[in-house]
């Protein structure tokens, strides 16, 4: 059987599932959000001054970054889970979150004295960040890997890694409501490293649980 015929057969199989893949992904995001919210509220919860912090641009910008990551990863993983689906546009959108963070970091470097750069980068909660973004994201990652098995990704390791990025964007969004470090330097460093952990776990999950 030629590769093109195999892809068409896989695509037909995906479309014949009891639940359409698009519906499965929407349900998965809803379930993952509930799981992430439960872990968040049962462990660290929001920061005490949340209502005050919500009036500051630095605090709100964190959600712009994390939501941009989650939305772009969602678009890409939906494409990757369907054989033969175009991925170029969705892949290009993955540059949005890093670009936004990069612009914010540059603006902060211009606005903040050089002597404060190290303090802003290290922050006060880097170990909590590194621990809880992966912790909050583990449940959602498991949900997303399960949906990938419902589809037929031709690049399971890549699809698993994007599942980790999606879980990371979701978990980082919840964690941002707890985090006292609102500096883009902190977010660019420690949020990124925490999401990379989930990305690596997702790639491993794709390698061992999603392949067909």
Automatic annotation (TrEMBL):
Origin: domain of life: Bacteria
Keywords noted in UniProt: Membrane, Transmembrane, Transmembrane helix
Pfam families hit by this protein: NrsF (PF06532)
Key word Transmembrane helix present: yes
Membrane-spanning residues: 24-44, 59-80, 92-112, 124-148, 157-177, 189-210
Protein name: NrsF family protein
């Amino acid at each position: 059987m030629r590769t093109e015929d195999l892809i068409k057969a896989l695509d037909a199989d995906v479309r014949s599932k009891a639940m359409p893949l698009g519906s499965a992904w929407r349900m998965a995001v809803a379930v993952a959000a509930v799981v992430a919210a439960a872990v968040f509220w049962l462990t660290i919860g929001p920061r005490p001054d949340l209502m005050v912090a919500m009036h500051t641009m630095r605090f709100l910008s964190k959600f712009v970054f994390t939501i941009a990551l989650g939305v772009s990863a969602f678009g890409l993983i939906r494409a990757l889970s369907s054989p033969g689906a175009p991925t170029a546009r969705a892949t290009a959108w993955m540059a949005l979150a890093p670009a936004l963070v990069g612009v914010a970091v540059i603006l902060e470097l211009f606005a903040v004295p050089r002597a404060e750069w190290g303090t802003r980068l290290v922050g006060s909660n880097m170990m909590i960040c590194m621990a809880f973004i992966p912790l909050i994201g583990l449940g959602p990652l498991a949900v997303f890997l399960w949906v990938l098995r419902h589809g037929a990704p031709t690049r399971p390791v890549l699809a698993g890694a994007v599942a980790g990025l999606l879980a990371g964007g979701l978990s980082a969004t919840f964690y941002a409501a707890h985090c006292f470090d609102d500096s883009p330097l902190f977010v660019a460093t420690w949020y990124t490293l925490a999401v990379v952990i989930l990305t690596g776990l997702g790639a491993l999950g794709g390698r061992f649980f999603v392949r067909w």
